[in-house]
Amino acid sequence: MKKPLVILTGPTAVGKTELSIKLAKAINGEIISADSMQVYKHMNIGTAKIMESEMGGIKHYLIDEFSPQEDFNVVKFKEYAEKYMKEIYEKSKIPIIVGGTGFYIQSVLYGIDFEKNDEDTSNHISYRKELENLAQEKGPLYLHSMLQEIDPVSAQAIHSNNIKRVIRALEYYKQTGNKISVHNKEQRQKDSPYQFCYFVLNNKREVLYERINKRVDDMMEQGLIEEVKHLLDMGCKKDMVSMQGLGYKEIIAYLEGECTLEEAVYILKRDTRHFAKRQLTWFKREKDVIWVNKDQYNDHEEKILEAIIKEIQLKSLI
Fold first, then answer.
1. Exposure of 140 by Cβ count < 10 A (0-12 exposed, 13-18 middle, 19+ buried)?
2. CATH number, domain at 198?
């Protein structure tokens, strides 16, 4: 028998958090966060992190677990998520993966095999260093154009600012002679080892964009600038994975005098809207997803929850 797994995802600011708490209470579940930024301690405002007081007694995993100085990536996510799922199953509860990082979700859902790079070879280390230096000297767009030449599919899927993933795709090609997009597509064809329901929460674009703009305004009021200053005082550097997150890199640019505060807020709102659009593009490519369009339920949370539970029952997860 395949073990049950529920996924609740969707674009940023669509309203996953509140719904996930109600869902966990209704189906005896516990929540594993699939958010690449909420995993970091001391980063609360810019990540719109759920606070303990908002968890309604539901246990959450992969929130506040890593220091901002540490790298967190899909390989680590998969390792920790699978460990926590085992714990949740042992309690006879259902794991609910909640968050908007589609690649993280996919890694667990289909048991994606990340062929580990041979970290020890001097060739490998020197090539990575070479790419990192190129990014510093010529900028992320130059590195992204290298990827565009060898693997246009990956270049379309990976944003030029995501230097870490661009480098990984270039490394993979250098080491294997194969495109990482082809490898990922093959992995996606795998059958899932779980009996799952994969929900994508969505809303009308104008409503979503309005919510994103308001969320950014709220973050500024809550003290995002002070949060970023505190992280820099702790020794965080702008090239760290954690500091590349939306809300952090824009405020660092303002603090370093690269733009005005007004410009930083404008860029943050614009780039968050673009990010939401890319998330939706990702989820549209995924198979076996159940779209939950909030406007079809007039944004009525209880009706949405009812529809989700009905699907879970139909798939005999509960």
1. middle
2. 3.40.50.300
Output the six-digit token pair for 235. Answer: 């020794």
Q: Which helix (H) or strand (E) holds 156?
A: helix 152-157
Give me the amino acid identity at 274.
H
> Do 32 and 12 sit in the same domain of this protein?
yes
Are 241 and 306 within one domain? yes
Predicted pLDDT of residue 13? 96
What distance in Å separates the CA atoms of residue 199 and residue 267, rounded to the nearest whole number?
30
pLDDT of the residue at 118: 46
What is the separation, in whole angstroms, between the first and last Cα of the chain? 13
| Separation CA 133–CA 138 (nearest Å) | 8
- Quote the domain boundaries for residue 256: 3-112+190-314
Cβ neighbours of residue 97 closer than 8 Å, sequence gap 6 or more = 5, 6, 7, 8, 9, 31, 32, 34, 81, 105, 108
8 A C-beta contact, residue 272 and residue 219: no
Residues 49, 195, single domain; the answer is: yes
How many structural domains are present in the chain? 2
pTM of structure: 0.82
Residue 248 is inside which H or E element, if any? none
What is the 8-class DSSP label of residue 7? Answer: E
Residue 198 pLDDT grade (very low, low, confident, very high; cuts 50, 70, 90): very high
How does DSSP classify residue 116? -
